[in-house]
Amino acid sequence: MYAVVVSGGKQHRVSSGDLLRVEKLEGDVGSTITLDQVLLIGGDNFKLGTPRVAGASVSAEIVRQAKAKKILVFHRKRRKRFRKLRGHRQPYTQLKITGITV
Known about the structure:
Strand 8 and strand 9 (82-88) form a beta hairpin. It contains no helices and ten strands. A four-stranded antiparallel beta sheet has the order 2-1-5-6, with no helix packed on it. With 102 residues, it is mainly beta.
């Protein structure tokens, strides 16, 4: 069985036991959270939400709270001697999906 959930404005296809990397969520490592914006349940009993499946939820355990690799943002304007270099590290939460309930 699998589900399509919304977290951080993005849609993710998950099944039990998957590791998922989403936008930063509040919580400590080892705590359990519930994702209740389920758009679709797939498998033997297929359910499609309009827009969400009523009563469905996905439970997950927080495995890690960290920052992604640094990306460099470089701006320049030609012939003006303008250069600006900035770095950015996006925080994320890594989840382990423990179960899907309908």
